[in-house]
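Reopening this one. Same input as before:
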Amino acid sequence: MTLFDPPTPPLPSGARARVRMTVAYHGRGYHGFAANPGVTTVGAVLAQGLERVLGHPVELACAGRTDAGVHARGQVVSFDARSDGLDLAGLVRAVNSLCGPSIAVRDAVVTGADFDARHSASGRLYRYAVRNAEVPDPFDATTAWHVPEPLDLAVLRLSCDPLIGEHDFASFCRRPKACAGVEPPSLVRRVRDARWEDGGAGVLLFWIEANAFCHQMVRSIVGTMVEIGKGQRRAGGRSAARPGATSTAGTAGTMAAVIRARDRRHAGNLAPPHGLCLWEVRYPN
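Same output, byte for byte:
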């Protein structure tokens, strides 16, 4: 499969089926999910594989347009296919043979014609992995951020509390470019859950679920939290009196102050993309 395959014939009119797929991928080497001329993206490679097997073009909708280097375990896509002779099991096998091992279709089902992977979703769950040990581990070097300085897990957990609920997350997002006469998009999101857990063997895991996410929101939040966990932040300021000396006192206030500022300059640096994974997409029952 190459970017120079001959074009497939158009999808003819007639009976069609809306297909929903769950897709996993390792984001290293891809310039994000969405198709982008001149670079290799997950969506473009997946669409090419589907078109080669189905024999007609597909237009993919995805639940989350992940950035370059970000992974997914539970990305969801939807598209229309000819229903006559549609063999989903065979389609999955063939696409995985073409796109694997960095891209893998986990399952595929025919769903209602009104289903859209993005617009039908009610929530997204992301996981961020941090390797918190003095020595890096080569076996998770592409899926976890190595932070050698000690992080206070209790402090990290307290920093989650202010995130819960509906807030304007402008402090954690790249603000959209202003266009004359156009109302800027809202950066208000509803976070349903945010928590840190000890994943064992020196790995800390951050889980966050929301109805939707702003661009780079999770990575900005993690970058800020890691600064708090190192003791580099305190309520009302960016620098602690003594870096490395963490305290649970004022931790929630520190994160709350960043949220209230609604200014990207008040948040921490972006966590690297390779620790982030789109874990699951929620849909109404």
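So the earlier flakiness isn't reproducible anymore. For the record, Confidence is low (pLDDT under 50) at residues 241-246.
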